[in-house]
Amino acid sequence: MLEVSLRAGVSKATVSRVLNNTGQVKESTRNQVFKAMEELGYRPNFLARSLANRTSNSIGLVVSSFDGFYFGRLLQQASRQAERHGKQLIVTDGHDTPEREELAVQMLADRRCDAIILYTRFMSENAILQLIDSVPMPLVVINREVVQAHDKCVFFEQQDAAFQAVDYLIRQGHREIACITVPMHTPTGKARLMGYRKALEHHGINWDPAKVKYGDSTMTRGYELCREMLQEGVRISALFACNDDMALGASKAIWQAGLRIPQDISLFGFDDAPSARWLEPGLSTVYLPIDTMITTAIDQAIRLANKATVDAIPPFTGTLVLRESVATGPYIAA
Predict the structure, then answer these.
(1) How many CB atoms lie within 10 A of CB 31?
(2) Can you give the pTM of this predicted structure?
(3) pLDDT in tens, 270-304
(4) CB neighbour burial string for 115-133, b if at least 16 within 10 angstroms, e if fewer
């Protein structure tokens, strides 16, 4: 550290603050220190630092699975944010089961992570609260509202976002609106379907069970369920798919039925997957700010680990991304 401080032209204390990410250090000074470290071939010994500081300098992250663009975006941003805080990111997979998610949290706790981020789809609120109370380090939950721990959860207004999407379709003149859901044994699936139902109710449109198919988030199932609906002769002028993958699958079924998007059936997705803009026509969808959510979760976890005072995090909201897959419907003048 002395050699680095001499090479960088700063004090040894400043080098310490840079390495441990503590105190206020100007970005230009930080860059000077890193440049000096690179020139000297110096690498900090994380084990020694952990023993000296009684911290592992790591953040644990449990995700439901490693599949899909969504978790790719989440992991990429989590890695960047952990690095900004001078922390290593340790990631494990909960295998989409509450039991495995809990085991993953316990494994990260055994590794003495400074804090843990849990992305869960299936764990009950009571189980989450028990985990928060049982692990010795801060546990921040992403993707779930935990009423009794608002300072330890980062969540998205799923129902409101679905409401906004279907409300938009209705205001564009559609009344015969079908829905393909994501898995209904998840809070996300229930909330998005409820948003669909609330939008219909808000506009005085009757709920029609024949217009709802229960999916599993995959393109294949989106294709199969849309084809099934069309073969059953269900009258629809618009389809709300509760994720983009199922919307893409549905688009093939619509095309194979000899129908056009959006002239015959308007199509709306959810998540704003990279593929949405490349569908022809481009898929209208809901943007979910997962990058900002995971950044917020890591920042909050580190504040909690540092015993700082924290506030509850307001819920995140979606943004409608309007492309070419929605046309005006037959009731536009209503």
Answers:
(1) 12
(2) 0.80
(3) 999 999 999 999 999 999 999 999 999 999 999 99
(4) bbbbbbbbbebeebbebbe
